[in-house]
Amino acid sequence: MPIRSELGPWPYLGYTASRIDRAAACRIDEAVLTKYESDPAAGFYLIGGELVVLRKDGDALQPLFSADEARAFGGARETIFLGLMDGAPRFGVGLEAGAVEPLKTRDDLKLTDLRSISVHGLVDAEHLPPLAEAKALLGWHARHRFCPNCGVPTNAVDAGWRRDCPSCKVQHFPRTDPVAIMLPILGERCVLGRS
């Protein structure tokens, strides 16, 4: 008897199989980035600290906003270029804490954490990887505003994928930690370790 027969089907792995092409070469080209930001197909994910802003669309929730919709929220701290999804530009926008509070009372929006979005399947699965990418990068920016080398405020460059110190000229990059979660099995049994 296969091990999954009693447990049901294998669950969907939410943060795998990302359709985002990070288009790293475009990050240094301001003209291309400006064109992407004004592209009618561009989509913006709005992140306020630990919360993701979702628009209520009937019974569904939509995580993408147009450029005009994103600008209308105000309070953007950082805008980062995530890449292209099926040729359409995707951006992450970090909102100031003061801009997030009034959004919590709006009936047309839902603000929730990324874990709840993933666990409860609140949005289409294609949005999970870019949402996680946006939240991670914007969180990194929030924690690395000053140069750890000399203490001077740093500047975001390369569409949000690097911070440069204007004083000591050190370049700072976000950490990328590979992660793997697995279940070792022996025959039809799980192998558990202790100590």
Structure report:
Helix content is 22%, strand content 28%. It contains five helices and 13 strands. The strands form three sheets. Strands 1, 2, 3, 4, 5, 6, 7 and 8 form an eight-stranded mixed β-sheet that branches. The longest helix has 16 residues, at 128-143.
Q: Can you lay out the helices and strands and say which pair or pack?
A:
Elements: E1 20-21, H1 30-38, E2 43-48, E3 51-57, E4 60-62, E5 64-65, H2 67-73, E6 76-85, E7 88-95, H3 97-100, E8 109-113, H4 114-119, H5 128-143, E9 155-157, E10 162-164, E11 171-172, E12 185-186, E13 189-190
Parallel strand pairs: 2-7
Antiparallel strand pairs: 1-6, 2-3, 2-5, 3-4, 3-8, 6-7, 9-10, 10-11, 12-13
